[in-house]
Amino acid sequence: MLGKNLLLSYFIDDPSITKAYFLGIPALGTVGNIHVDTLALALACMIIILMACWLVVPRLTSENAGGTGQSLLEMYYGFIDEITKGQMGSAYKTYFPLIAAIFIFVLIGNFIGVLVPWKACEFIHGWPRIGEGEPFEVASPTTDFNVTFALATISLLTYIASGFRAHGFQYLKTYVSPLFFIEWMDLIIRPATLALRLMMVITADELMRAAALTMVPMLLPAGVMGFELFIGIIQAFVFSLLTSIYIGLTVSHH
């Protein structure tokens, strides 16, 4: 079920692995806390993105309209270009690849829990079961705080690095000025809100769909799934936009 991740200990029961230490620290952390489903789905998102690029890029053309893939790619490029240029000005080209990567990864991550019929997988022989024989239900990787927090951390580190890139070591004064505590609070609040907003909204969507499937298994879930897709797009946009705004604030001249 949602929120009950498939743990590595489900697959591995080898003390040489589960109790391995490195410099006095558990090498794999607490093995039972490693979310295999989240890692696998995050990897699946990256594979989907790379495969799509592998199929589309060789067919790109500088003349004529090109194929459907090129049209979609050009629309996507224009969309991200508008976001980054509007927030970062002339510095947007440096951060364009990052914002584009964040948007498409979050979007695919939001969609993969909606479009793939994971419920049907429960009837596959050998499908994992948790708790009291309850079939494991796959959810979007963006419902896992580990994923959203990692994305928010990337946003935060880029935000800080962009300040030093634009202003040199003078940017350090921002964090040692008389009002330094406000900037330090920003370093906590901004990534926290990015991570929690994405996780909580997508989790709420997953729960809403699960409730709809339970109450009205025929027609209502289709409408809920359509709404989920819309929310998935909005959340990918919001995450990318806020990251662009944060970077734009640091690259601008104070």
- Tell me how many strands there are: 4
Backbone structural class: mainly alpha
Strand order, main sheet: write it out.
Answer: 1-2
Identify the overall geometry: globular
Q: Indicate the percent of residues in helices.
A: 55-70%
User: Per DSSP, what share of the residues sits in E-state strands of 2 or more residues?
Assistant: under 5%
Q: Which stretches of 5+ consecutive residues score pLDDT under 50?
A: none
Could you say how many structural domains there are in total?
1
Walk me through this protein's architecture:
This protein is mainly α and 254 residues long. It has one domain (36-251). It has eight helices and four strands, in the order H-E-E-H-H-H-H-E-E-H-H-H. The protein has helices at residues 15-18, 36-56, 68-88, 92-115, 118-121, 145-167, 180-215, 220-251; strands at residues 21-22, 25-26, 129-130, 134-135. The strands form two sheets. The chain has a two-stranded antiparallel ribbon with strand order 1-2. The chain has a two-stranded antiparallel sheet with strand order 3-4. Strand 1 (21-22) and strand 2 form a beta hairpin. Helix 2 crosses helix 4 (92-115). The longest helix is centred in the last third of the chain and has 36 residues, at 180-215. It is globular. The model has no long low-confidence stretch (mean pLDDT 81).
